[in-house]
Amino acid sequence: MNVLVIGAAGMVGRKLVAALVRDGAVGGVPISGLTLADLQEPDPPVTGMAVKCVAADLSRPGSAETLLADQPELIFHLAAVVSAEAEANFEKGYRINLDGTRLLFEAIRHAGEVQSYCPRVVFTSSIAVFGEPLPAVIGDSHEQTPLTSYGTQKAICELLLADYSRRGLFDGVGIRLPTIAVRPGKPNKAASGFFSGIIREPLSGQEAELPVAESVRHWFASPRAAVGFLLHAAAMDTALLGNQRNLTMPGLAATVGEQIAALERVAGRDAVARIKRVPDATTAGIVAGWPQAFEAERARRLGFVGETSFDEIILIHIEDELGGWIG
Amino acid sequence: MNVLVIGAAGMVGRKLVAALVRDGAVGGVPISGLTLADLQEPDPPVTGMAVKCVAADLSRPGSAETLLADQPELIFHLAAVVSAEAEANFEKGYRINLDGTRLLFEAIRHAGEVQSYCPRVVFTSSIAVFGEPLPAVIGDSHEQTPLTSYGTQKAICELLLADYSRRGLFDGVGIRLPTIAVRPGKPNKAASGFFSGIIREPLSGQEAELPVAESVRHWFASPRAAVGFLLHAAAMDTALLGNQRNLTMPGLAATVGEQIAALERVAGRDAVARIKRVPDATTAGIVAGWPQAFEAERARRLGFVGETSFDEIILIHIEDELGGWIG
């Protein structure tokens, strides 16, 4: 089976590629060729597998067609301009997140006009498709009323994915990822950055700022769980989806206070002492509009598995990023 | 105020134009100029008002810019390829219903870059944005999972309208119209045609075929109510909408049996005798997947008014289409 990963150089993309190379197969079907695409040519993984690394901008006409040259039976589409950038740059967000995805879907449709072709397409959507009104726990049949251009673009791509799948043009699964924590790497300016920062920095002996109250509740999955979602979506029986091709992934609802309690259990009081309360009204205001928890019953029934405690999320970070060591 | 009506030659478009010409104002603001656009140049209404009639295909680049030349403060966008055609012709449906609408929205955005411009945009969406799973009564926060390409295109345009409005690029209101009954004119091949046919034909002394069971329940508004929704959306205080710019219009839930009982009350047993039961499994199957009833509480609270009985819908047809006479 040929596999194509678009957005392979991102944080989740790199972890997905590592899992594909490690397993050598998806759902028991061996991978014969792997194409990794991103705006910048991704680094090739160390493997005996046939790997092609390409720089590609999906929003450029013809780009998707090139990526489909080997008729990949499985396509992961993770590429996106992130929320803050899509909000700051209207045209870029719509061009990459909407037009790029649509050009990919259209290239698949046109490839299927020449010869039989109906690949599995796994698309990463986001809980940003949800907005006002926000119940405390969002059900699986709740409306999509995004409050950002990013969320709008993801919601539109979900609708396209469902329609193309209904028509048999490809076999799509859209997965709405929770906020990923603990994100590895340096602190960033994203409004959600502190959710990872208050765990990651203290574990490495660094101080971290907490801009919101401990009562703030949000929806999390580890990077490892995210890769698990992608692999499950790639191999699942999509007949079980019917025409509802987009699924809210099972996350873990936790308050900041629960995050901190988990950190104390895992790493002790010294680690927790490195969290500095620096209240920030702007961040608090942004985060107040975010979803707090989801039912995600449908995805759980279909075999998607998230974490059950924030302790687990912290331990995964220590295992996967810190080599099992706390600094 | 300059007013632009796109899709002015359609059934609802013509009735809207008649109401605009009759009133000479919208929400108390006098209409100074009226531009009527459709694929074919619309017939000019009889009026002293300044009216421009233009043939325009929104999906052709530059077409929307031409329509905005007079900077209309109020834009009604009703133009669409209907459901059956959008399903039969994938590319045409997406080109007209999605790309055409997006080009209009983009033209408004670009006009606002040159000088201050933020028109009210009233967009007709449809209950076709709803699909599986379908509760007996669909709430105002129910997800959009359309089962047709037409419904998909309408749902995407709703998302765009909300995002452009949130960003202050225009002041949009999307209204999800119920199935319009009684549609005037000849019987057509639409799967929903019989809902109007079993009333319209008997009232004119003609026979009509009923392909489904009397227990089938659906969601209706008269053409007059549809025009009322459009005019209310044009004049309402959109600050009350917040970021939720799309509204399910209040319709009337009625079974086919209730339609027939209403016909008997209004026009007698002879009229009802003209309905011939001709069960058709294909039509019954299509209709089985359609919404039956909605809460529509939000729209009602915001002042949108539909009918309260099917008798009323029949009487409106007799008044508006038959000059008050039953054949």
TrEMBL record, chains A, B:
Alphabetically, the GO molecular function entries are: oxidoreductase activity
User: Locate the NAD-dependent epimerase/dehydratase domain: which residues?
Assistant: 3-211
> Transmembrane region positions?
none
- List UniProt keywords, sorted A-Z: Carbohydrate metabolism, NADP
Entries under Pfam families matching the protein: Epimerase
InterPro entries recorded for this chain?
A: DenD (IPR050005), Epimerase_deHydtase (IPR001509), NAD(P)-bd_dom_sf (IPR036291)
The answer to keyword NADP applying to this record is: yes
Output this protein's name. NAD-dependent epimerase
Q: Which organism is it from?
A: Devosia limi DSM 17137
Q: What superkingdom does the record give?
A: Bacteria
